[in-house]
């Protein structure tokens, strides 16, 4: 019972801390927010020129962020190997 | 869940549905270049075919078509294709995953070579995702016992 109360208090505290952080977010679809000023314009302007891909999402996924996608695949691979390791038992 | 249902309607429907699902999965894969889609989504659809096979028939029928040994090889083959494409670019004098350099070994210009490079890494992603999804499903649904769990379930069904 006491554990439940403590966990509810921790959950309320964590949620309110996150909600206070939301207040400082940039406005929705604000063109001057930091995320839109750094690399996004370059992706938008130079995708076709630099990567020759008609789709901007693909150019970011497979070209600019190729490492990221490679290790996403590795993460899935690792997850599968871990499930095999912990669950699969040797056949008789 | 993994033992035989013996339901003619479900089996026939699955037999018709699965080839179309697999074709659709390959469609999602090859159109990932210029429209929504790609390796992760296509791989999940492809894995759904094999999961449907287990549900509609039984585990043995599914394993006859997708053997456990091949499944383990496929798990790592996808990552190998992805990293191998990157290394091929590196060995041809470019950066890691700089697909334009593949035009030195492919009979195309750099622009088309970039397309082929991306298609090959998406294929690698699809193979890994498909094999891992199927393997996790097998392990979870039988508690890691595979054929043994199937035998136990059949024995229980016989007792009833």
Protein traits:
heterodimer; A: 92 residues; mainly alpha; 74% helix; B: 160 residues; elongated
Please report the total strand number of chain B as a whole number.
0
Q: In percent terms, what proportion of residues of chain B is strand?
A: under 5%
Question: For the residues shown, what is the average pLDDT of chain B?
Answer: 89
Count of separate structural domains of chain B? 1
Query: What is the number of independent domains of chain A?
Result: 2
What does the overall shape of chain B look like? elongated
Net shape of chain A: flat
> Could you tell me how far the N terminus lies from the C terminus of chain B, measured between alpha carbons in angstroms?
16 Å
Q: Which secondary-structure class do the elements of chain B indicate?
A: mainly alpha
| Portion in beta strands of chain A | under 5%
Give the helices and strands of chain A as they follow along the chain.
HHHHH
How large is the radius of gyration of chain B? 19 Å
User: Biggest interface and its residues per chain?
Assistant: A-B, 30 and 42 residues
Summarize the helix and strand pattern of chain B as letters: HHHHHH
Largest sheet composition of chain A: none
């Amino acid at each position: 019972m006491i554990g439940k109360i403590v966990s509810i208090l921790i959950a309320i505290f964590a949620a309110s801390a996150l909600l206070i952080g939301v207040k400082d977010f940039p406005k929705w679809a604000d063109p001057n927010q930091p995320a839109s000023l750094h690399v996004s314009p370059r992706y938008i302007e130079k995708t076709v020129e630099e990567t020759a891909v008609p789709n901007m999402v693909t150019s970011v996924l497979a070209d600019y962020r190729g490492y990221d996608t490679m290790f996403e695949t590795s993460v899935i691979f690792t997850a599968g190997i871990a499930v095999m390791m912990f669950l699969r038992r040797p056949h008789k | 869940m993994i033992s035989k249902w013996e339901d003619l309607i479900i089996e026939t429907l699955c037999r018709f549905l699965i080839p179309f699902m697999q074709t659709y999965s390959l469609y999602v894969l090859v159109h990932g270049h210029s429209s929504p889609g790609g390796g992760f989504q296509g791989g999940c659809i492809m894995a759904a075919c094999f999961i449907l096979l287990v549900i509609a028939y039984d585990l043995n029928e599914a394993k006859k078509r997708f053997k456990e040994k091949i499944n383990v090889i496929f798990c790592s083959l996808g990552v190998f294709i992805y990293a191998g494409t990157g290394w091929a670019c590196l060995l041809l004098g470019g950066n890691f995953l700089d697909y334009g350099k593949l035009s030195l070994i492919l009979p195309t210009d750099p622009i088309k070579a970039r397309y082929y490079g991306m298609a090959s890494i998406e294929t690698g992603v699809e193979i890994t995702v498909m094999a891992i999804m199927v393997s996790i499903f097998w392990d979870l649904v039988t508690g890691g016992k595979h054929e043994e769990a199937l035998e136990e379930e059949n024995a229980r069904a016989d007792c009833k």
